[in-house]
């Protein structure tokens, strides 16, 4: 008799995985969560809003996962997965409510799955949302043993009148950059080609460990900032770097003028630059040390930078908005 386990799917390991991740998931629960893991669907009670708009986003971690496999370190990429989703919905002023994850592999190892979901839970706690469900798929013969894929989906809420969509951005407004924690989760196909050896020393650590630094989550400081200041536009600097992401906040034909000398580019990007990438490609691929950008009125810019610094963030006035539809101008 042939069993499901003979085909490569170990149901018992799946049950073990659920038991291991349960404690991490429950740490993320808040008053909005109406049921626990194990149900057919997650339930979340919407907070009281006058005219609520749900804002959603989905993303994955990409080929940064290969660094995790090779370093056998799995507890940070779950944070990346959450960050990539919640930072996106934050761009429209939304507060993340809940998160769902999807984990796929060739052969399930419950201990690895626990570390991955532990990272997801940490990301949810940092962004103030709840992990209310997910899926773990064991697909033998489809993924190679030892390899995993992880993706997620976040839903947030914002009052309709408070949606941030760039409609009020005008010439003369200031662009404020908030520092990133490193390469975040973009450009890793290029990084892996440039740095095949993950064990080389970089500032006292294996460079593979440095490259696994999780994506910074900007939710709490930015939501706090929105209580006191008018934020006209926001951009999460992900794939496509400065060139693709900063102009996404504009509704009209405007240009973001960014001064490259307005802040110090982190050493990891200077190292990548030294490996043969030209500067334009760097700014078109990586966040270059700025993971999130705010567009604000000039009169508010100094107060916003001071407020961010008081919350422990590094923030810089990196440029301004001018008329024209050039998208981005680096100088």
Automatic annotation (TrEMBL):
PurM-like N-terminal domain ranges (all copies): 52-158
Entry similarity comment: Belongs to the AIR synthase family.
Pfam families per the UniProt record, alphabetical: AIRS, AIRS_C
Origin organism lineage: Bacteria, Bacillati, Bacillota, Clostridia, Eubacteriales
GO molecular function: phosphoribosylformylglycinamidine cyclo-ligase activity
Annotated ranges, domain PurM-like C-terminal: 170-325
EC number: 6.3.3.1
Keyword terms, alphabetized: ATP-binding, Cytoplasm, Ligase, Nucleotide-binding, Purine biosynthesis
CDD domains on file: PurM (cd02196)
Gene3D superfamilies xref list: PurM-like C-terminal domain (3.90.650.10), PurM-like, N-terminal domain (3.30.1330.10)
Protein's UniProt name: Phosphoribosylformylglycinamidine cyclo-ligase
Provenance organism: Clostridium rhizosphaerae
Chain segments annotated as transmembrane: none
Biological pathway: Purine metabolism; IMP biosynthesis via de novo pathway; 5-amino-1-(5-phospho-D-ribosyl)imidazole from N(2)-formyl-N(1)-(5-phospho-D-ribosyl)glycinamide: step 2/2
Catalytic activities: 2-formamido-N(1)-(5-O-phospho-beta-D-ribosyl)acetamidine + ATP = 5-amino-1-(5-phospho-beta-D-ribosyl)imidazole + ADP + phosphate + H(+)
Subcellular locations according to the entry: Cytoplasm
Stored InterPro entries: PurM-like_C_dom, PurM-like_C_sf, PurM-like_N, PurM-like_N_sf, PurM_cligase
């Amino acid at each position: 008799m042939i069993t499901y386990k003979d085909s490569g799917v170990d149901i018992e390991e799946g049950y073990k995985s659920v038991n291991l991740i349960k404690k991490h998931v429950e740490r993320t629960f808040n008053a909005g969560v109406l049921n626990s893991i194990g149900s057919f669907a997650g339930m979340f009670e919407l907070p009281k809003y006058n005219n609520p708009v749900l804002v959603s986003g989905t993303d994955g971690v990409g080929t940064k996962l290969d660094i995790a496999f090779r370093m056998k370190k799995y507890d940070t990429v779950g944070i990346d997965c959450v960050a990539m989703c919640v930072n996106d919905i934050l761009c429209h002023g939304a507060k993340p409510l809940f998160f769902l994850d999807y984990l796929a592999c060739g052969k399930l190892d419950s201990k690895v799955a626990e570390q991955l979901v532990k990272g997801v839970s940490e990301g949810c706690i940092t962004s103030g949302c709840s992990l209310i469900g997910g899926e773990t798929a064991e697909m033998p013969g489809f993924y190679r043993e030892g390899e995993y894929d992880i993706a997620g989906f976040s839903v947030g809420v914002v009052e309709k009148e408070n949606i941030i969509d760039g409609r009020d951005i005008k010439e003369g407004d200031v662009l404020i950059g908030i520092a990133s924690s490193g390469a975040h989760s973009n450009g890793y196909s290029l990084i892996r080609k440039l740095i095949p050896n993950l064990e080389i020393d970089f500032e006292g650590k294996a460079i593979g460990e440095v490259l696994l630094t999780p994506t910074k989550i900007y939710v709490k400081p930015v939501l706090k900032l929105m209580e006191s200041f008018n934020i006209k536009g926001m951009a999460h600097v992900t794939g496509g770097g400065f060139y693709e992401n900063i102009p996404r906040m504009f509704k009209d034909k405007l240009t973001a003028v960014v001064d490259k000398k307005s802040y110090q580019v982190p050493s990891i990007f200077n190292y990548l630059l030294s490996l043969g990438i030209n500067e334009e490609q760097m700014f078109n691929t990586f966040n270059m040390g700025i993971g999130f950008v705010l567009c604000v009125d000039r009169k508010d810019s100094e107060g916003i930078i001071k407020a961010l610094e008081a919350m422990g963030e590094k923030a810089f006035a990196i440029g301004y908005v001018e008329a024209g539809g050039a998208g981005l101008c680096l100088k």
